[in-house]
Amino acid sequence: MTKKKKNNPESQLHYELGTCSKQNDLKKAISLYESAITQNLKLSSQHFNSILHLCSTPETLISEDNKSLALEYGFRVYDDMLARKIPPTEATITQISRLSAAKNDPDYGFGLIKEMGGLGLVPRLRTYGPTLCCFCDNLRVNDAYEVEKHMISNGVKLEEGEICALLRVSCEVGRSEKVYEYLHKLRGVVRGVSEESAKVVETWFWGEKAVQVGVEEWDLGRAREEKERNGGGWHGLGWFGNGGWVVKRVRVREDGGCCGCQERLVCVDIDCGDTERFGDSVASLALERESKSNFKSFMEWIEKHSDYEAIVDAANIGLYQQNFADGGFSIVQLEAIVRELYNRNKKWPLVVLHNKRLRALQGNPSCRKLFDEWLAQGILYATPSGSNDDWYWLYAAVKLKCLLVTNDEMRDHIFELLGSSFFLQWKERHQVHYTFAKGAPVLKMPPTYSILIQESENGSWHVPVANTSSDELSRTWLCITRPSSCNSVLQSCCNNKGHESHPQTENGTVSLTGKRKERDPSPSRLQ
Asked: Where would I find the PROP1-like PPR domain in this sequence (predicted)?
């Protein structure tokens, strides 16, 4: 601090309050505040917020002695701030919300939050958290739901801690429809639930109220249709079955089989609505950055040629590990990947390659022969000069709901534009990584199952618990079943041999993505 600033009492006070915060010294901060009042210093929102921060920290409120002092001075400081007509900030309201919860008066905190809009302030998750949890702790379930509604109206997304609190209070008061709702909200925000959340889930299914919920008969076909529409991991139709639940802590095998009930977990995709929005978003951004006529032509072409099961990012594969002196585009690597994909299910992928690179490679007679064959077979699309081929292979993969073969992790700025709400889940389900072992391609297909809460058409649930190990086979899962319901559905499955996790094509080969239509050869656009 400069000498001039040290001579400024207000600046010196700000510095000393900062030191108190670092040392968590509430009593010293209060002493400084009282001294500032005596000296009639001109206090700012920074001064008040520093003191309020110290009053509202978990370290302060966990001690009964400090807690009473914090509550007394916290509200006194806040009243003084308002009396001086110093407008509160979001941090101010957040700290008073914490103090109100510590005082077991969530109504006061929620009242302040409701007034923030009129002050031009936007509440954050941290602003709502203490009030929401206090309502939950007091079993004031309708007030807790009202807080959640207010959060949603302000665009604040709940995280696991808040959802767990709402799930717990819903369990405690027996609101089965809300328990179901929050289980699904939990599924949407975490891959593996915390141990705290896992215990709340276990407690619900062990309880008497859980025994009483559920329909005895349901439309199994509709449940399967809803699961498929939702991406594969849940149906969202409510509780199925009757009677008691069996809750076990189990492991899941590498093939997705549950060691507790033998049910096969699935690799969950984004739902149909998100897929449609994702495709529209890619198209919209591409049309802004690419030649509209060129990309629209590609979109129209894809509409007419929609039976590909894999899209190949040719540049990524051809340039893989070619950063050495004599390195260049490896047509051998690209051909090996394309051939490996064909050998798996006797269907050719769509190879997307930039026109500039294609023309350069066609100078080599052997390359020209291969590309001419691919063009004749309708498996090569050359993106036009001046374009970014990333937009083309991404749009094709999303639009056709098929696999994308690339080691590109899609972290570039163009992918950041798409947002990450479901991008990572889409990548997990659709991206195929590759490497080469002694020149032979090795494809790393999407995982056989997703680390997400999964709800079965037979009414059972599987809940992954957070795991610090990198070994997924060591992860603990909650296996939650109703034996009578599972047995009846199992019998139905045995009678319906068409229900397979890997559909087959008419010639008996395994389909990569479950598509059944056959594709006629079609020409690529070479521009």
From this structure: 3-210
Largest CA distance in the chain: 91
Q: Which amino acid is at 302?
A: I
Backbone angles phi, psi at 431, to 5 degrees: -80, 135
269, 275 Cβ separation under 8 angstroms: yes
DSSP for residue 441? E
Q: Read off the pLDDT of residues 42-59 as tens digits, 9 standing for 90 and up.
A: 999 999 999 999 999 988
- Predicted confidence (pLDDT) at residue 487 exceeds the cutoff of 90: no
Q: Are 371 and 361 in contact (CB under 8 A)?
A: yes
Identify which of 395, 514, 378, 391 has the alpha carbon closest to the alpha carbon of residue 446.
Answer: 514
Report how far residue 416's alpha carbon sits from residue 468's, in angstroms, rounded to the nearest whole number.
28
> At 19, which helix (H) or strand (E)?
helix 9-23
DSSP 373-396: HHHHHT-EEEEPTT--HHHHHHHH
* H/E element, 311: strand 310-313
CB 13 within 8 A of CB 36: yes
- Give the confidence band of 519 by pLDDT, cuts at 50, 70, 90: very low
Cα four-point dihedral sign 421, 425, 187, 216: positive
Q: Residue count of the chain, please give it.
A: 527
Q: What number of H helices and E strands is found in the chain?
A: 25, 10
Distance from the Cα of residue 171 to its chain's centroid: 25
pLDDT per residue as tens digits for the range 167-193: 999 999 999 999 999 999 999 999 899
Alpha-carbon span 518 to 527, nearest angstrom: 27
User: pLDDT digit string (tens) for 2-51?
Assistant: 544 456 888 999 999 989 989 888 999 999 999 999 998 999 999 999 99
Among 188, 190, 140, smallest CA distance to 165 is for 140
Angle between helical axes of 195-206 and 160-173 (0-180°, round to 10): 20
| Per-residue CA distances from 414 to 153, 294, 394, 408 (Å) | 29, 18, 11, 13
